């Protein structure tokens, strides 16, 4: 069973982690705080995108483009946090499978491309916006978010905080 945990709870839980603890790997070494920070920031970025996609179908014109630009920046920022976890979990088969899913151009890049279109879409009709959001959500909810969940699961195992974080879904996931 997956549990949705508010980011504010995670911030408090991660803040209590010892700054000096570290998790050795074959080639890299990150502190528990680094892993918690990357996970927390990735969760926050994912949440921003999900919140945008939940309300995008009712936005038009400059309201749409402004909100889409924020979501696009958050989506791109996710790669920064993914990079930390990619290095940490290079030997984890579940994370490697998730990485392969995200790096497939028909998944994460498809979401970036869709958000880019929306961020430049002041002239899009309500139907065009709705159709594009549906296409983005189909890919994101089916492939991207479950892959992010696998990263978060690996982080939870390292953090040993008893929390099971999953990526926030938009309310219009198919």
Automatic annotation (TrEMBL):
Q: Which UniProt keywords apply?
A: Signal
Q: Which domain of life is it from?
A: Eukaryota
- Output this protein's name: Uu.00g009210.m01.CDS01
Q: Specify whether Signal is a keyword of the entry.
A: yes
Identify the stretch annotated as signal peptide in this record. Answer: 1-20
